[in-house]
Amino acid sequence: MTDSPAGPLKRTPLYTLHRELGGRIVPFAGYEMPVQYPTGILAEHAQTRIAAGLFDVSHMGQVRLTGRPGQAAAKALESLVPADIAGLQPGQQRYTQFTNDGGGILDDLMVTSTGDHLLLVVNAACKDADLAHLQKHLAATCEVEPMFSRGLLALQGPLAVQALARLAPQVAGLKFMTGTFIVIDGARCYVTRSGYTGCDGFEISTPADATDAIARKLLAQPEVKPIGLGARDSLRLEAGLCLYGHDIDTTTTPIEAGLLWSIGKERRSQGGFPGAATIQKQIAEGAPRKRVGLLPDGKAIAREGAEIAITGKVVGKVTSGGFAPTLARAIAMGYLERAHSANGTKVELIVRGKSVPAEIVPMPLVKHTYYRG
Amino acid sequence: MASVKYSQEHEWISVEGDVGTIGITHYAQEQLGDVVFVDVPKAGRKVAKGEACAVVESVKAASDIYAPASGEVTEANAALADTPGDVNAEPMGKGWFFKLKLSDKSELDGLMDQAAYEAFVKSLG
């Protein structure tokens, strides 16, 4: 998970704090980021599932879209993504993907409507390309403002709400996939009830110069401990969430990836986004392959790149695999030819030349605990 | 009295008579982070110096363990199957990997003693 473009590494507003906390710093998507703190990934993972964890995700790209006079940003953005954006009510958030003309995924992102603007959160490794993509296609209709210096904190876990509510009582009223402007520690933040762990929790967009103080205030809450990128990856894997560049990329469509749910109902029939023809055909006829959850027998871990076989014939490939601390066993996800992708199908994962029996299972492997009110 | 030597791949080998016990160092376990699975070689397997013969899996990644000397595996640490965390807690004690009947003890001459290994780790920053 170290996809580092060339050039000097950048730092988020929390770099000093990560160092102070004893974080092990690694290059990630062009940033110096903490992969773990001294307690280690297993403890951080459990902390998030049981209490609350604070993640620095300031490396991700935040972009503000504002419709030019007489233009609607939501309608404009729909020309690049397959989700129903025009239907977003103020304060509503949605997950979607930038697709290419072949229906492949350029990046996945969160879109929130504030009423006046759309706030986008895109992947760190893709943010420069995404910004260029937005400017190229939307400059005529929208003002495209990168807010790459802003901080982004994720506070995740069952006790996240109780910890954050001490600083900002309004957050208790937010439901999953909604957001609002909230002043925290004197700084105007945008808080959404969302995340990348499968737990209840929040993402807090902060002014750059307020990020460190807010992070310290959150860490001072008894429920909260700092969590690195290592546990972020094991948490999202348990939750069955895609990691861009691994589980989804320009060669996978949203249908193959099992993301049909994120495509607006009307948009499925009306199209109007890049790759619509391919995606609509796959909706109608089925995709040639499908992303599935995999539960290997035993303890060997099938990681990204491991082949998936049935009676010796290769029928797919693992795209993410690792140890699931919550389940105390190995899990994986990968792509399989559709004909073989039914739940319950027995397959073999090829790990270091050895065949490990595994079963196709529904995702997520660890139940989501989102707060839907 | 056992003598302990270290490899540049951060394995240790503790030699008593012609049997060496092999594991990874404190530095190695720290770099790996939480160990969740160790694939150790079966007794009877013959390994050559430098051969990848065990795998240690942390949450993040799988790493090969190389035989620091040639010989035949006499015993693997079966307890690691249930308590892989021993590798983190006691890398040079309960967290040992396997024992090797050495075929050529002169191979150990190329390994580092403790002082040299500590200097080597220091040089890694």
Average pLDDT level of chain A: 96
Low-confidence parts of chain A:
none
Secondary-structure element order of chain B, as H and E? EEEHEEEEEHEH
Number of helices of chain B: 3
Per DSSP, what share of the residues of chain A sits in E-state strands of 2 or more residues? 25-35%
What's the name of the CATH homologous superfamily of the domain at 15-58 and 150-238 in chain A? Probable tRNA modification gtpase trme, domain 1
Shape of chain B, please? globular
Structure explained in plain terms:
The complex is a heterodimer of chains A (373) and B (125). The longest helix of chain A is centred in the middle third of the chain and has 12 residues, at 127-138. In chain A, strand 16 (313-324) and strand 17 (329-337) form a beta hairpin. Chain A has 373 residues and is of the alpha+beta class. Helix content of chain A is 20%, strand content 33%. Chain A contains 9 helices and 19 strands. Chain A has helices spanning 15-20, 41-50, 73-77, 127-138, 160-167, 211-219, 229-238, 265-270, 276-285; strands at residues 24-28, 31-36, 52-56, 61-67, 93-99, 105-113, 118-122, 142-146, 151-156, 179-184, 187-192, 201-206, 224-226, 289-296, 307-310, 313-324, 329-337, 346-351, 354-361. Chain B is of the alpha+beta class and 125 residues long. Chain B has a single domain (3-123), classed as RNA polymerase II/Efflux pump adaptor protein, barrel-sandwich hybrid domain (OB fold (Dihydrolipoamide Acetyltransferase, E2P)). Helix content of chain B is 17%, strand content 37%. Chain B contains 3 helices and 9 strands, in the order E-E-E-H-E-E-E-E-E-H-E-H. Chain B has helices at residues 26-32, 86-89, 114-123; strands spanning 3-6, 11-16, 19-24, 35-39, 46-47, 52-58, 62-66, 71-76, 98-102. In chain B, the strands form 2 sheets. In chain B, strands 1-2-3-9-8-5 form a 6-stranded antiparallel beta sheet. In chain B, a hairpin with a 3-residue loop joins strand 6 and strand 7. The model of chain B has no long low-confidence stretch (mean pLDDT 95). Chain A binds chain B through residues 1, 35-36, 40-43, 45, 230-231, 233-234, 299-301, 303, 322-323, 325, 330, 352, and chain B through 33-34, 36-37, 39, 55, 57-62, 81, 88.
